[in-house]
């Protein structure tokens, strides 16, 4: 399993620290998916859960888009993978293209990095979320939390698939 992550430095200003930890967690998801076949990426955890590594990649692309493009920047972009099923990014993976999912996720993370670099940490998102204003700083912390939680899921999924473990 190739691991190109750069460990976050122990010293740095707030923005660098938040960005480094977010990038660490983004790349952790990539590491957990590295070297697996399409079938393995689609493999579910245990019933009744529909969780899979491919579903996690699709979900994180959706989350990146919502928080950075829609909430922070007020871009009028459609939601990803949404159908009548509110959990389509997880549930509709049987015929989903891993190549498309990873390309979309990478594009969304790159777009998020660019938007984030242009906005002060204290900036308030241009759209409310759940009826609340939130700062750019809050969004970054939330994204670190979102990735950390789902990377725990990814670690368990990967171990179940082929026994590979690691941070």
From TrEMBL:
InterPro entries assigned to the protein according to its UniProt record, in alphabetical order: DinB/YfiT-like, MST-like
A Pfam short name: MST
SUPFAM superfamilies to which the protein is assigned, alphabetical: DinB/YfiT-like putative metalloenzymes
Lineage: superkingdom: Bacteria
Protein name, as recorded: Mini-circle protein
Organism of derivation: Streptosporangium roseum (strain ATCC 12428 / DSM 43021 / JCM 3005 / KCTC 9067 / NCIMB 10171 / NRRL 2505 / NI 9100)
Taxonomic path: Bacteria, Bacillati, Actinomycetota, Actinomycetes, Streptosporangiales
């Amino acid at each position: 399993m190739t691991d190109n992550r750069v460990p976050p430095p122990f010293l740095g200003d707030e923005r660098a620290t938040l960005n480094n930890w977010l990038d660490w967690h983004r790349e952790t998801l990539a590491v957990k998916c590295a070297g697996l076949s399409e079938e393995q990426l689609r493999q579910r955890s245990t019933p009744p859960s529909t969780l899979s590594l491919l579903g996690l990649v699709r979900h994180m692309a959706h989350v990146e888009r919502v928080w950075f493009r829609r909430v922070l920047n007020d871009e009028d972009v459609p939601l990803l993978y949404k159908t009548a099923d509110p959990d389509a990014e997880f549930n509709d993976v049987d015929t989903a293209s891993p190549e498309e999912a990873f390309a979309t996720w990478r594009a969304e993370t790159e777009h998020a990095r660019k938007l984030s670099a242009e906005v002060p940490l204290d900036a308030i998102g241009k759209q409310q979320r759940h009826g609340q204003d939130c700062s750019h700083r809050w969004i970054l912390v939330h994204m670190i939390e979102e990735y950390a939680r789902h990377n725990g899921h990814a670690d368990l999924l990967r171990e179940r698939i082929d026994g590979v473990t690691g941070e």
